Amino acid sequence: MKRLLAATAALGVYASITSAAEPPSPITGRDLAASCAICHGTNGLSVGGLPNLAGQPRDYLVKQMRDFRDGKRPATIMHQIAKGYTEEQYDLLAGFFAAQRAR
Q1: What is the pLDDT of residues 13-57, one digit of tens each?
Q2: What range defines the domain where residue 81 resides?
Q3: Are 95 and 27 in contact (CB under 8 A)?
Q4: What are 63-85's pLDDT values in tens digits?
C-alpha cells in the first residue's frame, strides 16, 4: 500500500509541475522514470520482484504501457498509472529504460 501511495503521489507531483506548453527537456525521460523507481528500482533495475524495465526494447515498453492503459494487461496499479501519461511520455519513458543497462 505504501508503494501505491508513493507512486501515485510522485505521479501527481510531476504532473502538477509540468506544462504542455513547455518544450521537452533532454532529461524528461529520466525525470518521468523517477516515479517508477519506487516499484521498479533505480533506472529500472528492480530489487523487489517486479519486472526489470532496464534494457527492455523501446517498442515492447510502449506496448505494455498501452496495454495497461487499455485494460488488456491485468495490473494492480499500472492500469491507473498508465492513464496518466501521454503517448509522447510513453515514448520518453521507454527510451530512457531501453537505454539503461540491464543486469
Answers
A1: 455 445 556 665 566 899 999 999 999 999 999 988 899 999 999
A2: 2-99
A3: no
A4: 999 999 999 999 999 999 999 99
Look up the CATH number of the domain holding residue 74.
1.10.760.10
Residue indicated by cell numbers 519513458: 93
Cβ distance 40 to 52 under 8 Å? yes
Structural contact between residues 29 and 95, judged by C-beta atoms closer than 8 angstroms: yes
Rounded CA-CA distance 16/37 in Å is 19
Closest CA to 81 of 68, 70, 93: 68
Q: What is the pTM of this model?
A: 0.74
d(CA 58, CA 92): 9
